[in-house]
Specification:
Elements (H helix, E strand, L loop, with lengths): L1 H28 L5 H9 L3 H13 L3 H23 L6 H13 L1 H8 L4 H17 L2 H12 L6 H13 L3 H18 L11 H12 L1 H16 L5 H16 L18 H13 L7 H22 L22 H10 L4 E2 L4 H9 L3 E2 L5 E5 L8 E5 L2 E10 H5 L1
Parallel strand pairs: 1-2
Antiparallel strand pairs: 3-5, 4-5
Helix pairs in contact: 1-4, 1-5, 2-3, 2-17, 3-4, 4-5, 4-6, 4-7, 5-14, 7-8, 9-10, 9-13, 11-12, 12-14
């Protein structure tokens, strides 16, 4: 019986991951490199920069190879979250729903495709928490120590371990958390410069976008309910420290929220546990509203997830293409392909951001080039038109340097 249950769990998780992986690969193929990602690829000494450069060295310098490390980190995070959820959720269906909810969150999808430290933070945090709960002490301390050398993003994680150690009266864990927290502050620091300005509402809005509004409301309710009524686990300390730190500090200054959000979106086991605790204490006739709310939230998240994956269709309904939320990830690859079709592998443009993006696609932008690339003001008569679903989203003119001089 145990073998059958284990096989069923692996099969369910495999099917979910395989479906999501296929759509992520499709989305990765349709996203050009952004300026921030180009800087990370060519100029960054961060771990993510090394990972994507290694991927492109192995699989070729293309969009899929660029995003493959993030997709692999995400798939690994899904498996880790599923395994971690067994320490918080008793029943198999709850774990499947927990994993599905994690996968459908907009912030999780962004971390799976956009090059930044969020995906790595989620993966390493889940690995640390799982090793801690599973009793793999050596692995736990190795990962905990390794996190310090990745970036200063794990400051909140160290603070959470410090407070959790105090709560559980574990002096050794408290000292470890405190020492790493202070060391992270000393080495990486925390920027408090600038004029104090309130960004509380903006921070609240970003959290709502990352979770989706309904899930964010329940996330806040979950943190509050566990605070006043339920057992406080390590995962709760990680999430509450990150959320409260953001809310408090945002009253004074604007934060780089990608450094804190990864520690909040892993709260799905807590949310699912609180929800089903409330659901199962009620008589069957009073559970209908809970089932309806669950279905509506999952359907909404699923539709939102599909919209993000197939986002390019939104261009058909937007008057100004550059208002599209993924516009900064489009144009560059298609423009590079068009220039290559025209036999142009060297060109000049004053747009420094576009220069770095074109470099990824092996278009050399040189000041000595006689061919100049200009943004076109007239889409109808432009030399190069970038179209998505038959709608022109960008246009460029190609001129000879002498002609421009005249």
């Amino acid at each position: 019986m145990r073998f059958y249950e284990s096989s069923s769990r692996v099969r369910n998780l495999f099917i979910i991951c395989l479906f999501e992986l296929a759509l992520l690969l499709y989305c990765g193929l349709n996203l050009s490199i952004s300026y921030y990602e180009a800087r990370l690829f060519f100029q960054s000494n961060e771990i993510i920069g090394y990972l994507v450069r290694a991927s492109c060295a192995i699989f070729g310098q293309n969009d899929l190879a660029l995003r493959l490390p993030m997709i692999i980190l995400h798939a690994s995070s899904v498996v880790l979250l599923y395994k971690l959820s067994k320490f918080y959720l008793k029943f198999e269906p709850d774990r499947i729903i927990c994993t599905l909810l994690f996968m459908l969150l907009p912030g999780t999808l962004a971390s799976a495709l956009v090059l930044n430290n969020a995906g790595l933070c989620i993966f390493l945090t889940l690995a640390i928490l799982y090793a801690f709960h599973a009793g793999y002490n050596r692995i736990f301390y190795v990962l905990f120590f390794a996190s310090f050398f990745i970036d200063g993003d794990f400051l909140i994680l160290y603070l959470a371990f410090f407070i959790y150690g105090l709560y559980r009266k574990n002096a050794f864990l408290s000292w470890v958390g405190a020492l790493f927290f202070l060391a992270s502050l000393y080495v990486f620091g925390f920027d408090t410069r600038g004029r104090p300005s309130g960004h509380f509402v903006d921070t609240f809005g970003v959290f709502a976008a990352v979770f989706s509004p309904f899930v964010f409301i329940f996330f806040v309710y979950t943190l509050y309910r566990i605070w006043i009524k339920e057992k406080k686990d390590l995962l709760w300390f990680v999430c509450i420290c990150s959320f409260c730190f953001c809310m408090v500090v945002s009253v004074r200054q604007k934060l780089e929220l990608e450094e804190f959000l990864p520690f909040c979106i892993i709260a799905t086991p807590l949310m699912v546990r609180v929800f089903f605790n409330s659901y199962r204490v009620r008589l069957p006739q009073f559970r209908r509203i809970y089932r309806l709310i669950t279905a509506l939230i999952l359907v909404f998240l699923g539709l939102n997830w599909l919209f993000l994956i197939f986002n390019q269709i939104a261009y058909k309904f937007i008057d100004e293409p550059n208002n599209h939320f993924v516009y900064k990830f489009d144009v560059a690859r298609d423009l590079a392909n068009r220039l290559k079709e025209m036999g142009l592998d060297q060109i000049y443009t004053e747009d420094s951001k576009l220069t770095l993006r074109l470099k990824f696609y092996n278009i050399n932008v040189s000041n000595s080039s006689d061919t100049i690339l200009l943004n076109s003001r007239d889409y109808k008569f432009a030399d190069v038109k970038i179209k998505i679903f038959d709608k022109t989203i960008a246009a460029f003119d190609i001129r000879e340097r002498d002609a421009v001089g005249k």
